[in-house]
User: Which sequence fits this backbone?
C-alpha cells in the first residue's frame, strides 16, 4: 500500500470517527433541558477540530508527494 492511499484511508477514518463523536455529542446535548449551558458553542468547536484535521492530512499528503518526487 502506498503512502498516499494509506493517508487517504486515515483521512476517511478520521472523518468517520469525528462525525460519530459529533453526532453522539449532539444527541446527548439535545437531550438536556439547557442546551446552551451544557454544550456551549459545539458547532464552533467541531469546526475548529475539523479545520485542524484537514490541515494535518493535507500537510501529510503534501509531504508524501514531496518525498515521492525526490
Assistant:
Amino acid at each position: 500500500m502506498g503512502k498516499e492511499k494509506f493517508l487517504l484511508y486515515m483521512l476517511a477514518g478520521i472523518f468517520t470517527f469525528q462525525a460519530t463523536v459529533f453526532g453522539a455529542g449532539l444527541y446527548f446535548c439535545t437531550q438536556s433541558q439547557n442546551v446552551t449551558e451544557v454544550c456551549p458553542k459545539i458547532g464552533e468547536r467541531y469546526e475548529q477540530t475539523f479545520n485542524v484535521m484537514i490541515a494535518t492530512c493535507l500537510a501529510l499528503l503534501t509531504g508524501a508527494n514531496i518525498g515521492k518526487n525526490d
Notes: The first helix runs from residue 3 to 30. The chain is about 85% helix and 0% strand.
